[in-house]
């Protein structure tokens, strides 16, 4: 069964859209839809994610970060994704390997290194469709401001997020069939409609 992943920079609307997508997959005829996320899609993963994202006092090297996110992913794939796919469910994951390539790539790690580590962690699991919710970095700034989370951005920086976005742009160019860009500045309902259509064409015939 299909694995669908959502990608994008911070506050691009992934969590919002995943809710629409779950409903829409059911309305298209899916039997069971599992919604999950990275990092922290498992109990072990939550510990790892806390270590990487919350323990700001730790000086974690970018290469260590690649391994930690891959460890989170290994647990996630073994415990959640693989069993669900085997049981014939649709799996929708909020972030996957592409997030590591984009975010750790933007932090200076080589794409080949990130891919190799992740290959060891998850072997042959690959998304069938990836939805990239693309928004300009300024929109991230606005949305985080609105939510009173501007400190989140300061820790990353606008320039860094722009590099992350550039990585996503590259992926969309390299893999146009799997990696689909959607304009994330549109109204949520409109975005949901476009994602539904993509899924309909890809998984339910036309
Ligand atoms: N299409 C949209 N237009 C305007 N605002 C939106 C849209 N989609 C989501 N938002 C708002 O932007 C904020 C971020 O949305 P959401 O949490 O879905 O994004 P996310 O990609 O999951 O973010 P995070 O990086 O925190 O996981 C929320 O306050 C949400 O209400
Ligand atoms: Mg989210």
Largest sheet: 5 strands, parallel
Number of domains: 1
Architecture (CATH level 2) name: 3-Layer(aba) Sandwich
Mean of residue pLDDT? 95
Which structural class should the secondary elements be placed in? alpha/beta
Beta-strand segment tally: 5
Total DSSP helices: 9
Proportion of helical residues:
55-70%
Bound compounds: adenosine-5'-triphosphate, magnesium ion
Radius of gyration: 16 Å
Assigned CATH superfamily: P-loop containing nucleotide triphosphate hydrolases
Unreliable runs: none
CATH structural fold name: Rossmann fold
| H/E element order | EHEHHEHHEHHHEH
- How far apart the termini lie comes to 18 Å
3D architecture notes:
The protein is α/β, with parallel strands linked by helices and 206 residues long. It has a single domain, classed as Rossmann fold (3-Layer(aba) Sandwich). 60% of the residues lie in helices and 13% in strands. It is built from nine helices and five strands. It has a five-stranded parallel beta sheet, sandwiched between helices. Helix 1 crosses helix 9 and helix 2 packs antiparallel against helix 3. The radius of gyration is 16 Å and the shape is globular. It starts with a strand and ends with a helix. The mean pLDDT is 95. The protein binds adenosine-5'-triphosphate and magnesium ion. The site of adenosine-5'-triphosphate has 13 residues, from helix 1 and helix 9. The site of magnesium ion (MG) has 3 residues, from helix 1.
């Amino acid at each position: 069964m299909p694995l669908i992943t959502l990608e994008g920079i911070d506050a691009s609307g992934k969590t919002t859209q995943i809710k629409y997508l779950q409903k829409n997959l059911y309305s298209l005829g899916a039997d069971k839809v599992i919604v999950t996320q990275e990092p922290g899609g498992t109990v072990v993963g939550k510990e790892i994610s806390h270590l990487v994202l919350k323990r700001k006092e730790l000086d974690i090297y970018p290469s260590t970060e690649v391994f930690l996110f891959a460890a989170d992913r290994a647990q996630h794939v073994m415990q959640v994704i693989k069993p669900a796919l085997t049981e014939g469910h649709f799996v929708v994951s909020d972030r996957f390997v592409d997030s590591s390539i984009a975010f750790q790539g933007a932090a200076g790690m080589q794409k080949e290194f990130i891919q190799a580590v992740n290959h060891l962690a998850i072997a042959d699991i690959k998304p069938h469709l990836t939805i990239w919710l693309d928004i300009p970095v300024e929109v991230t700034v606005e949305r985080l401001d609105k939510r009173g989370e501007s400190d989140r951005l300061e820790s990353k920086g606008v320039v860094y997020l722009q590099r992350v976005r550039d990585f996503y742009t590259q992926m969309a160019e390299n893999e146009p069939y799997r990696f689909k860009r959607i304009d994330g500045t549109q109204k949520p309902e409109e975005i949901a409609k476009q994602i539904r259509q993509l899924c309909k064409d890809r998984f339910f015939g036309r």
